[in-house]
Design goal:
Elements (H helix, E strand, L loop, with lengths): L14 H12 L2 E2 L11 H12 L12 H15 L9 E4 L2 H12 L5 E6 L5 H7 L3 E6 L9 H7 L4 E7 L11 H11 L5 E5 L25 E6 H5 L7 E5 L1 H14 L5 H13 L2 H20 L15 E5 L9 H12 L1 E2 L1 E2 L13 E5 L4 H12 L2
Parallel strand pairs: 1-10, 3-4, 3-5, 5-6, 6-7
Antiparallel strand pairs: 2-8, 7-8, 9-12, 11-12
Helix pairs in contact: 2-10, 3-10, 4-5, 4-9, 11-13
């Protein structure tokens, strides 16, 4: 009899699939999974149509369409005054998650340790486990979810090979300050540690604050992978197009893995994005105000409710504290309660932890929605 053991025995169906199925079954308003319910820019959709009609339907270069890599390099130059070589330092990938996976596989060996800040995106730890490494989880400090640097210092040892950073942070919306980056630099500058910086919400920063990328710090330039997502920035999450940026020696290691994990991304999507980015550089510049207006609309709708919240600093997620409503329920049960009794679906924050605090009473809502959807959601939540 065939007997196989799972490499991820503790992994079940993701919470995102569970909550989406629940929303569909109950015909509930779905603010759980992070994707827009409004269309992509018409000019971008037209560019995709033209790309397919013009014959861009076969394999691209494994590292990505050069025109798209060049446009991305221009973005980094304009925003961070960072000069990148699009040939040796940028790889286009089918989404950010595969880029995260390949960066971890490229660097982590058996018994290596990877520091992960919880709550954290759910793909990090499984990727470390599959590489034979060990995830070391450090809780961010609630309610602002900042890093406790003394805890980081205490966890670093000779086995520490990588630290995963996520800014702007999913699921809390917190962002790293320049001081945070300097604290990290001080701790690792003389150690054999790689930084994996998940920056997929890089353009979604609110209230006039600034996004700091790992690559703009000279001390981190040669030891960092930066991961990004065109899907998040251009409202096309279904196109599954992301990127990885790193110094040439790190990119070489990355591409050794990537060529066997997926080989290449989707050609017409890359061609369309390159064309749109060239014609509409203002798009990313307008994103902070665009999404801040949606955050503010959502929060205004619930400001007189019994939910408590700190306005999100970035991403398109807002966390709500429901302690004043149903403190007797954990966050998973609270999401079930809201779905069944109020026909609205959110994500429990505890699923982003290896071991969540028992006192946690936070749930996450996505505000990448039409104003009508946000107004409807606000009306529901205001009655809870």
């Amino acid at each position: 009899m065939l007997q196989l053991q799972s490499k991820l025995p503790s992994q079940g169906v993701t919470i995102f699939s569970v909550m989406t199925e629940l929303a569909q079954r109950l015909n509930a308003l779905n603010l759980s999974q992070g994707f827009p319910d409004f269309p992509a820019p018409p000019a971008l959709l037209e560019a995709l149509s033209q790309a397919t009609l013009s014959g861009y339907n076969q394999y691209p270069a494994g590292d990505g369409v050069l025109a798209l890599r060049e446009q991305l390099a221009k973005q980094f130059l304009q925003r961070d005054q960072l000069q990148l070589d699009p040939v040796t330092e940028i790889t286009i990938t089918p989404g950010a998650t595969i880029a995260i996976f390949c960066a971890i596989q490229a660097c982590i060996h058996a018994d290596d340790e990877v520091i992960i800040f919880d709550p954290s995106y759910d793909s990090y730890a499984p990727a470390v486990q599959l590489a034979g490494g060990k995830s070391v989880h450090i809780h961010l400090e609630a309610p602002t979810f900042q890093v406790n640097w003394q805890k980081v210092k205490d966890c670093i040892n000779a086995k520490t090979r990588m630290i995963i950073v996520n800014t702007p942070h999913n699921p809390t919306g917190a962002i790293w300050s320049e001081q945070d980056w300097h604290q990290l630099i001080e701790l690792i500058q003389d150690k054999n540690i790689v930084v994996l910086s998940d920056e997929v919400y890089e353009h979604l920063i609110f209230d006039g604050q600034k996004h700091y990328s790992a690559l703009q710090f000279p001390e981190l330039r040669e030891r960092s992978y930066v991961i990004g997502s065109f899907g998040k920035s251009y409202h096309v999450t279904g196109w599954k197009t992301g990127y990885c940026v790193a110094a040439p020696h790190l990119m070489h290691l990355f591409r050794q893995i990537y060529q066997f994990a997926n080989f290449c991304g989707t050609t017409p999507c890359q061609v369309a994005l390159a064309h749109y980015m060239q014609q509409h550089p203002e798009h990313v510049q307008e994103l902070p105000n665009f999404y801040q207006a949606k955050r503010d609309l959502f929060n205004t709708q619930i400001q007189n409710s019994r939910f408590q919240f700190i306005p999100s600093q970035g991403t398109y997620f807002q966390n709500l504290d429901y302690s004043a409503i149903r403190p007797d329920l954990n966050d998973v049960d609270m999401c079930q309660f809201l779905a069944e009794q109020h026909k609205i679906v959110a994500i429990p924050i505890s699923v982003f932890y290896q071991q969540a605090p028992e006192s946690l009473r936070l749930i996450r809502f996505c505000f990448a929605k039409t104003d009508q959807t946000l107004q409807r959601a606000g009306a529901i939540l205001a009655q809870c």
